[in-house]
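Chain A, query sequence.
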Amino acid sequence: MKDKQLDTENEELLVLKDVKTSFFTKKGVVRAVDGVNFTISKGEVVGLVGESGCGKSITSLSIMRLVPQPAGKIVSGEILFKNEDLLKKSEDEMRRIRGDRISMILQDPMVSMNQLLKVGYQLGEPYRYHHKVSGSLREMCIGLLKKVKVPAPESRVNDYPFQFSGGMCQRALIAMGIANGPDLLIADEPTTALDVTIQAQILKLMKDIQRESRSSIILITHDLATVAQICSRLLVMYGGRIIEKAPVKTFYKKPAHPYSVGLIKSVPVLGRPSGRLYSIDGQPPSLLDPPSGCRFAPRCTQAKKPCFEIYPPETILEEGHKVSCWLY
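Chain A, predicted structure.
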């Protein structure tokens, strides 16, 4: 029984192969996602981290086929979900997948929910769209609110989002995301607008739901502490590319890429002598005209001549730990 479970967890659910997404503007072509490759297994929680503007959210929108039109376009690559290429699906086929097999939780709950519609109506909307429904969905919606630990769900189901706190709204959004039991849940900065105490509750809630449903989660964030709490594996993104992939424990003990080392050094640690916080010198590259070599080379203290000329290939350091850097 145990071996069968392990086989299921190692089964590939989502595979991105050399995905490139660009925005065609008056100033030129912005290569927001420029050759991204990674795999998500069934039942896996993976963190996608990096500073603002590195391409995390556009990667998630590419998976959902929701890149803003007409400027944005998925230029090339493959996005295989259960061995089927989402880029070859029609828009009608994608509508049947979104909110059903793949769901997304956005980062600002107060903006993501319609303030003029009752919470219960919005909770039932994904289910109504994907299933034939006869009668009321009230009991199902109450059950969803109970699942995400919203107090007094029997009465709160009739409330409007503006009557909810930020934390309660985020719980309601999670309830909408899991209404159809998706195989993959993409959470884009789900705790950014919340205070630290509520953040911890939301992360625990997501982990509990994941364990219960065995769904996979891609957690998009710039907060390494958040990743450490619920993720088993981590992908570091910089300048539109994935530069390091590692199990979370390995990453925190021995980060390989100089950018990853800088990220870890930038995290304040309780008990560390006070003083000026560490920061990485320089600015992220413009994706209008990115460097031909390593995107991080202009800011890297260890950069050599090849770093500025050719993008480094992916090197395997140990099982599950890969890095794109000429140092290795």
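Residues 1-8 have pLDDT under 50 and may be disordered. The two ends are 40 Å apart (CA to CA).
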